[in-house]
């Protein structure tokens, strides 16, 4: 029999209580370090958002000698110049992708085809530097020359890329590195849309599928940091400044009926973009593909300059309720077509803001037409249906109702519309998923592998 039992602690070992305290302090220190790096990821997201915005404005100036916004720039130049600007911008963006792909293939660092959403779902941070640089330059050329897509998507991509770099060099535990990149994604959403809560919900609902409770605190810190910095450096107001809108309880029935249409609009928008991509894929050269897409969008902008850019100015006007429904309907149809051409041709840019545009314009048209036939108590404030439409169509396009609800309410500061927005998103989600439309970012649970 052994003189000393294997389970007997060594006389030199510290007491169990001391060991527990040391382990607790070590764990607390690691958590605090993670929170500090999360705040740094938020700062990187704010900086990258402002840098990309500046870059697109410079490109806009080079091609149009205007820097007051893309729709204003399109109106300021002659109608015959708009197709030329869009075509040249698309051609250059395509050339960057075409020849940049060879440059990316020669590199060895990171996965060439790993998207930041896929990386978050897989717990990876090895985004390819060359691929992200190429996509950023191409996106800036497309967006700066009037492509009918959002600049917010590349902003979030740039924030994710910067935070992925931070995750590689930060002195933190290996299992915490992916959390830093997730923080960058949330912070990018927060900075681009002035919607910090929506940034958190975005990564939990779309990127992680609600399976990362240890990531919640750092994501909140990063999103809040990015929003605070953007508020200080840019504007403390919501993205869309609106006057208060009253919620009329008797209008709920009309809202639910309209939500069926919103779900159909979102589903149809996704299908149109998907069909456009299939058609453009027949052109092998990215340069020719994007050049043709730019030419088509430019030709359409010769008659409707509002198709340039992400549709921010039109959404603001729809929220003001000053434009007639006939004009909104015209811009809605042309913008949907232009966005399907820009996205279908392969232009790199966001689809969130175009989805918000579709919902806002459709809501404005339906509210004004309904007001001609129905009592005011049934329709309520026509502008409220613009807000509801934004959230409902975004839900149909992303299959992420919680993110859509929080994002739109934060962007407009119309929280009194929470109940009709929630009901509309529920109906829109049911309609869109019923017909099997593939959402913009896929299903996070199905995508985890």
UniProtKB/TrEMBL annotation:
The residue ranges crossing the membrane are 34-55, 84-105, 179-204, 216-234, 246-267, 279-304, 324-344, 356-379, 385-405, 417-437
Annotated Pfam families = Voltage_CLC
The main place the protein resides is membrane
* GO molecular function terms listed in the Swiss-Prot or TrEMBL record: chloride channel activity
The record's section on InterPro entries has: Cl-channel_core (IPR014743), ClC (IPR001807), ClC-type_chloride_channel (IPR050368)
Q: Where in the cell is it found?
A: Membrane
User: What is the membrane topology here?
Assistant: Multi-pass membrane protein
Q: Name one GO cellular component term.
A: chloride channel complex
Query: Which key words are in the record?
Result: Chloride, Chloride channel, Ion channel, Ion transport, Membrane, Transmembrane, Transmembrane helix, Transport
The record's annotation in PANTHER family points to: CHLORIDE CHANNEL PROTEIN CLC-E
Q: What is this protein called?
A: Chloride channel protein
Question: Lineage of this protein's species?
Answer: Bacteria, Pseudomonadati, Pseudomonadota, Betaproteobacteria, Burkholderiales
